[in-house]
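Late entry, written up from scratch paper. The run itself happened at the end of the previous shift, but nothing got recorded in the book at the time, so transcribing now.
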Amino acid sequence: MSKDILNKNDATTTKSGLKYFLQIEGVGKVIDSGRIVIQHYTVWLSNGDKIDSLRDRNQPFVSVHPTEKFIKGMNEALSLMGVGDRGKSIMPYYLAYGEKGEYFYRLQPAYESIYFRICVIFTILYFSITNLKRLTII
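Output as recorded:
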């Protein structure tokens, strides 16, 4: 994995400092909060070490968006994407594992920017049993 996964001329930088590049534009609208997102992702440290890849394992990740299971930068990147989108992003340390680092399969260094490739496979509307009880059948 090259440290320069983003062409600096093509990347968009958000107010938070996330750098994002849309590689392939899908057909879906931007992901709304409360939707279930099915996605693949691969993540590298800034030195090029791959730390996880659901794509390699062919195991899509399923979660309600946004989720506390993700680092801040991942939730932000998903908020910029729609169904079918494939994108790359650089997440500064404060959107990743922070000042102390964190254990994620192994200890991630403090102050470490990380690199993500994300593919949104599809989304579905989330209904909880509580919501279903409120529905009135006529």
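The two ends are 56 Å apart (CA to CA).
(Scratch paper discarded after transcription.)
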